[in-house]
Write a structure and sequence with these properties.
The complex is a heterodimer of chains A (about 350) and B (about 675).
Chain A: H1 5-12, H2 14-25, H3 30-37, H4 42-49, H5 55-58, H6 67-88, H7 93-117, H8 122-128, H9 147-154, H10 161-164, H11 175-200, H12 202-227, H13 234-240, H14 250-256, H15 261-268, H16 272-280, H17 287-304, H18 312-336, H19 343-346
Chain B: H1 2-9, E1 22-30, H2 31-44, E2 48-49, H3 64-86, H4 103-165, H5 172-175, H6 178-183, E3 191-199, H7 200-213, E4 219-230, E5 237-248, H8 250-263, E6 266-267, H9 274-330, E7 334-335, E8 341-349, H10 353-366, E9 374-378, H11 392-404, H12 415-430, H13 433-448, H14 450-455, H15 460-467, H16 469-486, E10 502-503, E11 518-519, H17 538-571, H18 575-606, H19 612-621, H20 636-655, H21 657-668
Antiparallel strand pairs in B: 1-8, 1-9, 2-8, 3-5, 3-6, 4-5, 7-8, 10-11
Helix pairs in contact in B: 2-9, 2-10, 3-4, 3-9, 4-9, 7-8, 11-12, 12-16, 13-16, 17-18, 18-20
The chains are: A mainly alpha (about 350), B alpha+beta (about 675).
């Protein structure tokens, strides 16, 4: 198919590509962020956002605003846009769009299971779930006692079921197991998504494999850093890495044996694309790593829009919007807690 | 040539076609009269303020608090409107005319109303919730009680029957249905049940989940609740299903209860004893009727409050919107050094200066200000905005033209011609006086009801029709005219202007469709002869007429557009445009399409049989060949060669010199200086 997308892509995908590019034009710009960072109160933020595409979603909120309301409404806008695109999409774009939400689904499952483990109220937990990752029987997750039940009762109906086959054990759920489950699920999901994109071929495969490889590598690094000093064995750690990406397979071998952050750094610096990220960090520092990765991701996502006739734009748009909502959350939190000096710590400018 | 120049110079000025002369003005308004002055100016609508605080973000401006308050008030008003429409009340059509209340007063009023409404809502919500619970309980009692009674009776009867038939039918127990086997031990062993109610849409998934969780060791009965229950959150009616689950074991019980909770199913205990059931049902029913009266009373009270809000809603909304606009405008003004005056700049048409001054004086007087408002003209560097004065009639045409692009300041406005050319060109295509009359009636209805429809809020489609009512009127009139020329009334020709000029060769008319008709008197006086209708040559004749006419009209229209660009260039003293745009465009258009128009006219006049397609195509392909039968006039071939060469020369003439000359000028003059206006006008 490669090289001929431009002939046939617009038959089914043209309208939605136009829509998504239009949405992208509505992302907040650097000037918007500058203004937002100068806000004194949450009302100022609302006022500023009312001039953007978020306006209609925030206009009916009564005045003492909370950060959560702002984030909720902004997410609602993203969800509305997503639902609209999903309704309009035909195969295989609709499957592609559904794949985008599986990550949130995994997060939600983990959130609910962890929450019930710590005996939180289910409805309270449901409110915290990301609306993109909702599925019908999500509330029933609270009933399950162990992984097998989790799978058999609830997840068997969801698209996550095939990913679960790898981590069914009769072990009781505890924090460690849940975290391993999350990463196993995510690994299976990323690999499946990767395979799906490869099957689509053409520019979609090219761009998405780059984006997903970055995602897989980032997860590998995060898993390594988070598991340093825990009882996770090297082999177990090795099993959680996705079987693709720039680091696969030799980088994974080396990451699996890392004992501290500087070793991770030494491994990563062998890979030119990640050199720039790690060279920015001083030795022994891992807090800023997240932001550096986010910045790199945003850069790559923006590049996806440079090419036409592929599905990567949908993935990129969703991710960019999510990043924007994270930014808004951070800014509003900083404003609400009078920590304006820290505003720039975690905001990733999109353009 | 000189005479031509003089002639053009002596033409009347195209005032009608040019946008209004604008001037930049400065206003220095004392703070105390600023609000009133801006609101009076807003009602006048003849001054466009420039944003003097463009570099400030919206929340850094002076009147940000007032804007925020207006935003808050309009949110409250939207809330009222939403509540009113949810309650199914119609907001009164006739707005009550009352003097405008003060903004502060309104704010307090709105806050009171909102508080009152929210309190009433929360009260009624609580009541509604209790009511819903009771209603659900009643349903569960009725339905689930039904299940239990029937299964109990069944079991008892079964037992009796069994004991009677125990010898005659040994294997009855094995053949009896699973249900009855399960039911029987209900009385003795640990088989228990949970009854409740759930949304109908969730029932299927609920059942599946129960089945999985208990590994199939349960029985699930369901039955439609019959009545719909109002969902307190969305105020929509929801269908519900009553269910009874039979199960055994304590563990299953906790699981099932958890699932019920997860699915939002409300569980209600139903006593197995029938007399107890009856007693509870009676209690529930009496409480239900009590609650109903309370709810009704609350509803009436709320509706009354909402109706009284509804009377003022329209007025309040427009008032808040006006206030917000006033403060938004005030935010565009600057404080002067003394902080006692606001300084504003804006554009206004020259003719409106007196009106503006009058409004400003009124504002000064009404706000009892000691100091008057200073209003003076300033020199402008930038180009003024385009402003066309329109009226009911020309507004729609101006909008059509603006949809393609707004003319620059003082540029010729094609809307003036569009008033006639647009409906006429439509009619050339539409051309049917029957349909035209229908359209005319529609347009007349819209115009007759103008004053009433003006105040009403119409749907988007009706709004479009209403906005273009005068366009429709002219379109229909021209359609009638063109329809008469084409002689078509709902596609049927009529003998309106006397009889046909043609008749059959003989009395039987048998060869009318083979040999044709003969002409026996003068041509039909107006339009197309009705005899063409249905004849073999109808299509070639009408097509040739309409097509050729369209070409003539189109070429005329294009020539008009290019001529306008000449007048524009003259007006702006831009000889570059005349020399490198107007002249080659004119030559190109007329040497090809103008020539075609000439050929059409000659063919019409002489009745020649020449094939114009052939002439035009071979003019390009082989210009030197002999024309043969297609020669329309003497010297046609050399003329064609000359025209072709002219057209060929015109293309590079039109495309290349202008950009290069502009570039040269640009690099000569200081880089920041204004360019000679680039204009490309093709109307």
């Amino acid at each position: 198919m490669y090289g001929f997308e431009s002939m046939t892509f617009n038959i089914h995908g043209g309208y939605l590509e136009a829509i998504v590019r239009g949405h992208r034009a509505g992302l907040l710009t650097a000037a918007d962020y500058n203004n937002l960072c100068q806000c004194e109160t949450l009302d100022d933020i609302k006022m500023h956002l009312s001039a953007t595409e978020y306006g209609p979603y925030l206009q009916n909120e009564p005045s003492p605003l909370h950060t959560t309301t702002i984030v909720e409404k902004c997410t609602l806008k993203l969800v509305d846009e997503y639902k609209y695109m999903l309704c309009q999409a035909t195969e295989p774009l609709s499957t592609f769009l559904e794949y985008i939400t599986y990550g949130h689904m995994i997060d939600n499952v983990v959130l609910i299971v962890t929450g019930t483990l710590h005996e939180r109220d289910v409805h309270e937990l449901l409110e915290k779930c990301h609306p993109l990752g909702m599925f019908d029987s999500i509330a029933t997750l609270a009933v399950a006692q162990n992984m097998r039940e989790l799978y058999r009762l609830v997840l068997v109906d969801t698209p996550l079921a095939p990913y679960f086959s790898e981590c069914i054990t009769s072990e009781d759920l505890d924090d460690m197991n849940i975290e391993i489950m999350r990463n196993t699920l995510y690994k299976a999901y990323l690999e499946d998504f990767y395979k799906f994109c490869q099957k689509l071929g053409g520019a979609t495969a090219e761009i998405m494999s780059d984006l997903l490889a970055f995602e897989a590598d980032r997860r590998a690094v995060n898993i390594t850093i988070n598991s340093i000093g825990t009882e996770l064995t090297r082999d177990d750690r090795r099993k959680l890495y996705s079987n693709f990406g720039l680091l696969y397979p030799y980088g994974h071998e080396e990451l699996a044996v890392c004992e501290d952050i500087d070793q991770v750094r030494a491994v990563m610096e062998k890979y030119p694309p990640y050199q720039s990220i790690f060279s920015k960090l001083s030795y022994g520092e891992s807090q800023m790593l997240d932001k550096a990765f986010y910045e790199e991701e945003v850069k790559r996502l923006c590049l996806a829009f440079e090419q036409q006739f592929h599905y990567g734009v949908f993935f990129a748009y969703m991710r960019l919007r999510e990043q924007e909502i994270r930014n808004l959350m951070w800014i509003s939190e900083c404003v609400a807690q009078n920590q304006k000096s820290r505003v720039h710590d975690s905001v990733v400018f999109i353009f | 040539m000189e005479r031509m120049e003089r002639f053009i110079d002596n033409l009347p000025p195209m005032n009608l076609m040019r946008s209004e002369k604008m001037t930049l003005v400065q206003l220095i308004i004392p703070v105390e009269s600023a609000h009133r002055a801006v609101s009076y100016l807003g009602e006048l609508g003849l001054l466009q303020f420039r944003d003097l605080n463009a570099e400030k973000s919206p929340f850094q401006r002076t009147f940000v608090n007032q804007v925020k308050r207006c935003g808050e008030m309009s949110r409250k008003l939207r809330f009222f409107k939403d509540q009113i429409s949810k309650a199914g009340l119609l907001s009164s059509v006739l707005p009550v005319v009352e003097p405008d209340v003060e903004l502060e007063e309104l704010e307090i009023q709105l806050a009171e109303h909102e508080h009152e409404l929210i309190e009433m809502n929360s009260n009624s919500e609580k009541l509604r919730q209790t009511y819903n619970e009771l209603l659900e309980f009643k349903m569960v009692l009725q339905k689930a009680g039904g299940f239990l009674v029937s299964s109990n009776n069944h079991a008892v009867a079964e037992e009796r029957e069994l004991s009677e038939n125990v010898y005659s039918n040994d294997d009855y127990v094995e053949t009896s249905s699973l249900l009855e086997q399960e039911m029987r031990p209900a009385d003795q062993s640990g088989l228990r049940f949970i009854s409740g109610i759930i949304c109908k849409s969730k029932a299927l998934r609920f059942e599946r989940m129960l089945f999985r969780a208990t590994r199939g060791n349960m029985l699930f009965y369901q039955s439609s609740a019959g009545e719909e229950i109002m969902d307190p959150v969305s105020a929509e009616m929801v269908e519900k299903t009553v269910f009874v689950v039979f199960f055994s074991g304590e563990q299953a019980r906790t699981k099932i209860l958890k699932i019920c909770e997860a699915f939002g199913a409300n569980c209600y205990p139903v006593p197995e004893d029938i007399s107890k059931q009856r007693q509870i049902t009676r209690e529930v029913l009496s409480r239900l009727s009590e609650l109903e009266t309370t709810l009704d009373a609350g509803m009436r009270h709320r509706n009354k409050a909402l109706t009284s809000i509804g009377y003022h809603l329209q007025q309040w909304m427009s008032m808040v919107r006006r206030e917000k606009a006033v403060y938004d405008t005030l935010n565009m003004l600057n404080f002067d050094v003394t902080k006692k005056c606001l300084v504003g700049e804006g554009w206004c048409p020259i003719f409106a200066k007196a009106q503006i001054q009058e409004a400003l004086q009124r504002a000064t007087f009404d706000s009892n200000s000691q100091v008057g408002i200073i209003f003076h003209v300033m020199d402008a560097v930038e180009s003024p905005p385009t402003y066309f004065r329109t009226n009911h009639f020309t507004n729609a045409y101006q909008e059509i033209v603006d949809a393609y692009g707004v003319a620059r300041y003082q540029e010729a406005n094609p809307a003036v011609y569009t008033v006639i050319t647009f409906p006429f060109l439509f009619a050339v295509m539409f051309g049917d006086w029957g349909h035209g009359i229908c359209l005319l009636l529609g347009a007349l209805v819209l115009i007759a009801r103008e004053s009433r429809l003006n105040t009403q809020k119409l749907g988007s489609f009706m709004e479009m029709l209403f906005g273009g009512r005068y366009v429709l009127l002219l379109m229909s009139l021209f359609s009638v005219y063109c329809g008469l020329i084409y002689n078509e009334f709902f596609s049927v020709p009529f003998h309106i202007f006397g009889g046909s000029a043609y008749k059959c060769r003989d009395a039987t008319c048998s060869d009318a469709h083979s040999a044709g008709l003969i002409k026996f008197r003068d041509p039909y006086p107006f339009g197309v002869d009705p005899s063409w209708r249905g004849s073999r040559s109808e299509l070639p004749f009408l097509n040739s007429l309409k097509m050729k006419m369209s070409i003539l009209l189109g070429v005329a229209q294009m020539n008009l557009g290019i001529l306008l660009s000449y007048f524009n260039a003259r007006f702006f003293h831009n000889s570059l445009d005349v020399r490198y745009q107007f002249v080659p465009q004119m030559i190109f258009l007329n040497s090809l399409f103008g020539y075609l128009s000439l050929l059409i006219i000659i063919k019409w006049c002489t009745g020649s049989q020449a094939d114009l397609y052939h002439v035009m195509i071979y003019m390009f392909l082989s210009p030197t060949d002999d024309l043969g039968d297609n020669e329309l006039f003497w010297g046609q071939r050399p003329l064609q060669i000359v025209l072709l060469l002219l057209a060929l020369v015109a293309v590079p003439w039109m495309l290349f010199p202008k950009p290069f000359i502009l570039k040269k000028l640009h690099s000569e003059v200081a880089p920041m200086a204004c360019l000679a206006p680039l204009s490309l006008i093709l109307m």
